[in-house]
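Team,

Forwarding the record for the chain on the shared tracking sheet. I've put the sequence and predicted structure together so nobody has to dig through attachments.
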Amino acid sequence: MNSFLQLERDGAILKVTLNDPDSRNALTSPEQFQEIVSLCEELRHDYSVKVIILTGAGASFCAGGNIKDMRDRAGIFAGNPFELRDGYRNGIQRIPTALYNLDIPVVAAINGHAIGAGLDLTCMCDVRIAAEGAKFAESFVKLGIVPGDGGAWLLPRVIGMPKASLMALTGDMIDARQALEYGLVTEVVPREELDETALAIAKRIAVNPAHALRLTKRLLREGQHMRLDSLLEMSAAYQSIAHHTEDHEEAVSAFLEKRAPEFKGR
């Protein structure tokens, strides 16, 4: 079986492409889920990777689940209700927790349709930019089902509850410009400029020390559900670690000496 993920390395930046354009990069198999989870686990221990770019091959970013399998109650949609429940818990639901626990910043370069689980996948990323032709839908309700992969938690935290409710309860599709207005994406660019724009953003992130990037992302994640006083305690602990790194000392020296810093990941 061919790999679902295509990996390309550019220095400290790893480009990850969902590579099944014939299915519009649908998330359809346990093997795909495991591949994403395994990559996240591997990257947690690889401090040479500072930024990830996530995109899709072909005309779509990710079309969500396989609707024909839903109709036929086949593949990951087979089984009785209890088996289906465990299938979700041990399958696609491992992806949001894997990405949530991954401290490396992820830039989503949304090249085309991001539908259902595909939209939720973009919400698991930290920065989202879209090609002009991209489309977005939290479309589960259109199929008589609910967001099964964490969308009801993810989407409101990205665009706020009112707009998330509108998208989830109507299931309607929005275009890239509406996504920009909603705050779902931060930038919309012509399709031919998407990869270059994503790489430019990734490079702006990657110039910073790896430890500071990972600790900052973790604080942003934890801040979504922690009380302020708890987050302040966590911030103080992280800050004390950061102050004792060689890269912090190099950053301060470079700033005072008006030169570019040379970070070593220590």
